[in-house]
Amino acid sequence: MSVKSFKFVSPGVFINEIDNSFRPRRPDTIGPVVIGRAARGPAMQPVKVESYSQFVEVFGDTVPGNGGGDVYRDGNYQSPMYGTYAAKAFLNANVAPLTYVRLLGEQNVNKASGGENGWQTTKTPDPALADNGGAYGLWMFNSSSAADLGDGTLVAIWYLDSGSAVLLSGTLAQGSVSDTSASVGGVYTEDSSGDFTILIESADSGITDEKITFNFDDSSDKFIRKVFNTNPQVGNDGADSFYPASSKKAYWLGESFEQEVRDTFTGNKFAMITPLKGTSDSPANMTDVADLKGRTGWFIGQDLGLASSYNPATAQKLFYFEDLGHSEWLNKNVKISIEKIKPSNTKTSDYGTFSVVLRNLKDTDPKTVILERFDNLTLDPTSPNFIAKKIGDMEYVWDETERTLKQYGDYANLSKFIRVVMNSDVEAGATDATLLPFGYYGPPRYGGTSGATYSGATGGDLSNVLVLTSSVYGSMANFMSGASAQLSGTFNWPVVRLRHSASDGGIADRRNAYFGMMSTRTAGSTVADMSIADPHRYWPGTSEADYAYIFSLDDIVVDGSNVYYLSGSRVAGTSETAVNSASDLLDAGYNRFTAPIWGGFDGFDITKPDPMYNAGLSSGTELTNYAYNSMKRAIDTVADPEFVDMNLLATPGLTNTGLTTRMVDLCEERADAMALIDLPNVYKPAAEGYESSKQARVVGNPQTAANDLRTRQIDSSYGATFYPWVQTLDEPTGQLLWVPPSVAMMGVLASSERSSQVWFAPAGFNRGGLSDGAAGIPVTNVTERLSSRDRDTLYEARINPIASFPSSGIVVFGQKTLQERPSALDRINVRRLVIYLKKQISILSTQILFEQNVQATWNRFKGLVEPFLANVKVQFGISDYRLILDESTTTPDLVDQNIMYAKIMVKPARAIEYIAIDFVVASSGASFDD
After folding, report:
1. Where would a tag sit more exposed on the chain, N or C end, judged by fewer CB atoms within 10 A?
2. Which CATH number fits domain 32-110+604-830: 3.40.50.720, 3.65.10.10, 3.40.50.11780, 3.40.50.450?
3. Which segments of 409-463 are extended strands (E)?
4. Pairing between strand 779-782 and 726-730?
5. How far is CA 246 from CA 205, 253, 673, in A?
């Protein structure tokens, strides 16, 4: 502070305090990017996590494969998700955050034929044939008359390829055809035990026909999901088959709707099997899905008009919620409740408030499991509690032309799961301020709200739910007795139960009941139904216009202590809002309801244990192979250094040469990161195809690996690779599995940085001992024990060996980059040093950007950089350095061009990789002084 700043009038002592102890803000630590699959989490976008516990919270724990169980319903965990192990290995060292890009099956917007994502079972052209493949549905009818079946509902779906058949067998409802027949289109009765029988037939002589008796009682040994195959991969018999022939099945059971069966069917039941939907929009054609995100239906406001003219389909739409990228996981695990709905209680605003609560899908109203909640929300766009501000409305959209992610929206996403999409009129403040969320549109279904009705006398249009040609129609009619007998019935797609009574499910205080979707086994149960997510899958060929129902609190009836939901009661004049008002209903405490999330799809081929397996990436391009496009897009997502900061890039398990070379090229283009790549033809995991012996899984050797890498002619210090695969222990399950070397190296690089610095070699017994924990995860074995000659072969080809020694354990025994030309940068520690120096000096340089290009600024730059370089020298990163910034570098001509030009010269410290010692054996008379 200058003396001129003091005000001197009368004599005295003037003291001012100056604090020069401020420490400059330390730049954020920079970590790696890992690309891979995960159990859940936002997909196809970079997400930064600070710790492994946070990674588990967002993406789930490690997945070792061999998940077994109900694969179709619970998810595909049949192959290891190597990216999760790489994340764990790195984050266990706690040296830097990690950015993860979770993969989904994304097709290219300019895709060619064959480039569609998803999966499909094949069909023959004639859907009337019993063995035409596709999707077949089991319909159940609760009626005393086989000829007049009444309301029927789909209760299960089987998927099969052309040449196989799923036939209903047993006792015909009536007719002259033999009771032992099996058919598509015939009406059968349950047996004396309440069971039905399915016959699985196949033209493939390698697959044995099955006759399976089943029911829908999940406590029974004959429960449908216990007796039928639910693993879509077991039916794969192509060249990339993953199971032995003895394990193959001709079909798999897809959805089953147990809640619907429990709620609807009692007494004597009839059943029928039919093909489902058409060719392009069949449930068996889950391909060409452009939008993988799940969502809710529109949330609607209360009716502000006359009750007698109420139509929920014309109610004001307010907003809906959209998945942030979790896809199938979200609609299988999360539901959304609106609660604490309150009208305005002030004169300053007519806007009321409400809460949005994300709950576990399988919790119950008496015992909620809350994942997130947002309270005191409003539809007032000028309020700080506006719903879009409190939850967020940002979305990432991939721009195929510019090959980058673009972000749209006004408010940052504060939810980990969803964003809100506002109705434009609500967002503009153009709707009635008294509106509150009062209901929602249900999920889409085939047939919409009306289903499809068939009468043998008049026919009927079933095309929106069934595929029936004249021969199948004839089969349906032929099973009726008498020439005049006609089959009639209604075919409905299943719908999750809506709460009827406020007292259902053991609610002690009826005001705590959530109307809308109910996820329990029965109306009176307090146990969740395991089938609750099946009706909310993505259904091809449906749209928002095919909504199954519209729920609204406007249809809640309050009759003394009897409070219940009855669709149409407002129009009938019996609902509480018709008799009194919406405020009266809310004031009475009936102010909450629950809505489902539906339509999320991972976009993967579920017939593959690992839909991103390398053999499947080997053919095609971005336009003709959705898996290749997904991986290429994920890699290109992190190409812009101003969008994603990183110093390492890894896609563990990816060995496709085109894509791994792209990784190295990308890092070289960025010039601030190194790619760790895995080599092909080293080890063949089960997800790459069936092998009869474990010995056959070791498919290469050091010499072929060296030859193959030389053939690729990669010459870059921005990449490195290691050999062979290593074995680790999945700690949550105790399962041993083989992982690619890039997984272990992520841990080694992190632990090396933690114990020393990035410029120390991540190899050897001090920092590369995998048996000693350097990998961050347990490493117990290697696929191949390398001899000294093997290590020489690999190292000469720039492949870093991972060696196993009898006394010292498993050790990383090399640190070369993929650069062919000898220089300091052909070593990993030097390349990482230079990346570190460039990044940190770049960050320091931003402090003088846009300052005056004069000597004082140059001196300031030197004052920032020289202490930094000196510190690196003290810590053995460099042996010497020199910074030149004066008129010889920044000439007057450069000053006129607004350029400051500095030169920094460094001498990297080298690691000791070879130790040569002469042992001289001298005679007794020799002098050591000689």
Report:
1. C
2. 3.40.50.11780
3. 418-422, 437-441, 452-455
4. antiparallel
5. 12, 19, 48
